Description:
Elements: H1 2-33, E1 36-38, E2 47-49, H2 53-74
Antiparallel strand pairs: 1-2
Helix pairs in contact: 1-2
Amino acid sequence: MMYEILISILHIIIAFFVCFWLTKKWINVARARGFVGKDMNKKEKPLVAEAGGIAVIISIIFSLFLYIFFKTFVLKTETHIIE
């Protein structure tokens, strides 16, 4: 039981850092490819990267797959969600 809690906390931390890293990378790629728009909330209207949710979705999916992998193949638990 304690291992499951530790693995859950570890995956939350991993998801945060993967999201942070992917967001930084996405900003550079978006600027290079021209996926930018004006920031409507600032007076100067600087250009900012758009579609930043892609990094969040990828990091969530990566973390979920990693969590399922660890629960299935490392801890060898067979918990069923429906039960």
